[in-house]
Amino acid sequence: MSATEVEPRPEEEFELVVGLEIRVPLRTRSKLFCGCATRAADPPNVNACPICLALPGALPVLNLHAVELAVRTALGLDCVVHPVSVYERIRCDAPDEPKGYSLVQRSRPLASGGRLQIGRREPGTPLEVRIAAVRLGEEGATVRHLRRDHTALLDFNRAGHPSVQLVTEPDMRSGAEAVAFLHVLRQLLAYLNVSETAMDRGGIRVNAHVSARGFGETALRPKSRVLELRSAGAVARAISWTFSRHTSLHASGARVEHETLRWDDVRGVGTVVPARDEVRAFGPDPDLPPLVLDSDWLDRMHRDLPERPAERRHRFLTEYRLAEREVEVLTASPGRADYFEGVARRHGDAPTAARWVTGEVLTALRRERTPLGRFRVRPADLATLLNLLRDGVLSDESAREVFRIMARTGQRPEQILERPSASPPDAPRDG
Q1: Residue 431 pLDDT > 50
Q2: 242 and 112 within one domain
Q3: pTM attached to this predicted model
Q4: How far apart are alpha carbons 348 and 288 in whole angstroms?
Q5: Domain housing 356
Q6: Residues 235 and 337 grouped into a single domain
Q7: Which of 32, 244, 2 is nearest to 136 (CA)?
Q8: Of 153, 288, 331, 372, whose CB count within 10 A is highest?
Q9: Measured between alpha carbons, how far is 43 from 56 in angstroms, rounded to an integer?
Q10: Residue 388 in domain
């Protein structure tokens, strides 16, 4: 090799292949198979019953609201919802599973065949990730480790909490694409109003399936399943580390085996989880009949599906004639999009409303460190202020001063202008 030649790194000779399993707890008041509350933060084991504890003779009853939220999630992902799905018992020796098995819609899931667009490839073709399956299941108990004496305690408040499991096809080719998928998914779930979507507060949890193969290959090589990733950053770091590990093994001629890893985000490494016995399906659960969904009910669920982020972005572009960058900012969350529309429809000038919401409103929210739901300036009051600006009652500078007072006090513009001083300090003067 000449001095000018550089030996390629192993990563440059292989293609990264990523698929994700994502568990999303649903926003319900009661658990999937019983009436216990889903308040996991309550004192330990106060929200538990014979069904949560898997006591003999306790029979489950399926939560219809959880079914509705899971179906809404599947429809939001453009999945085909199957009229019949079946719960199977899968052996599970984990300490957080009191039954000794988990209930999984494995062979006959609730839905399948969906897709989620996460961006565009060059030269502009959609970048989509296919959804292999949507399953409705339940969470396990919480294991609490006590450092002082190395004991572990079980808290069953979370056991039985409804959740959907989304399984993607291995369509992602980088950690950035996996992170983009999670970002778009969280936004969709917020618009569908089905889940608390913050990963760092026990919301979305991810298992990443990572493998490496030569460019041009179509067959999948053995993969590593990285468990329980709880942030987008951890997903990206775990995928990068695992891919480097696979490429190094391939480059050295070593054999890569299917394996399960547990990720340590502090140290930035994964450790191999000892292989368990082969998973055995016990067959359909005898206590739960097949879940049969009425076709008229499914049609009604489809008609009542909330407007999704992509649909709202398209409508903002066509109806309000806004720039794409403004639309991206305004539709980042359903609350922000609702706030903008509340201002725009009352004021009548959508570009001005968009400029104030993306500018003054977001600046005030960052300054006050408050969520939009608790912002003191209501959409109707901001529209009134913009009307006064449009009609020449206030200058641009004085309107911004009135807005700052509104943000601090929650007062309406007319209340501020009726103060004894008669006008804000920089109001326009005659002559």
Answers
A1: no
A2: yes
A3: 0.88
A4: 54
A5: 307-417
A6: no
A7: 32
A8: 331
A9: 25
A10: yes
